[in-house]
Design a protein that fits this description.
Distance between the termini: 17 Å
Number of strands: 2
Radius of gyration: 13 Å
Structural class: mainly alpha
Oligomer: single chain
Strand order of the largest sheet: 1-2
CATH class: Mainly Alpha
CATH topology: Recoverin, domain 1
Shape: globular
CATH architecture: Orthogonal Bundle
Number of helices: 7
CATH superfamily: Pheromone/general odorant binding protein domain
Length: 120
């Protein structure tokens, strides 16, 4: 599947996670312009997305699962990029608090390969 197809499959999580965290539309839309303010509502929205997609559990990113899942779902051409971003972001995610962990990871993905940024 392509990145765009994958984005469509998780699009419905935007409504669920934004409602759960009272995340305003402005914060959600800002992600796609590279705007990642350290706002608890955005940070916890990102955690909600990661938990719903099983990329995070108990405030920890499941790095191996993330890559393994990408290999099963995405077209082969994307895999080296996913692996590269994961290796880079593993070093950049330093928090141990769940919402901030997800936020650091999302921000890192966007800054390193924004096409791979999937949050709806």
């Amino acid at each position: 599947m392509t990145i765009e197809e994958l984005k469509k499959t998780i699009k419905n999580l935007r409504k669920v996670c934004s409602k759960k965290n009272d995340t305003p539309k402005e914060l959600l839309d800002g992600q796609f312009r590279g705007e990642f303010p350290q706002d608890e509502r955005l940070m916890c929205y990102m955690k909600c997305i990661m938990i719903a997609t099983k990329a995070m559990k108990n405030d920890v990113i499941l790095w191996d699962f993330f890559v393994k899942n990408a290999r099963m779902i995405l077209l082969e051409e994307y895999i080296p990029r996913v692996e590269s971003v994961v290796e880079t972001c593993k070093k950049e995610v330093t928090s141990t608090e769940g919402c901030e962990v997800a936020w650091q990871f999302g921000k890192c993905i966007y800054e390193n390969d924004k096409e791979l940024y999937l949050a709806p």
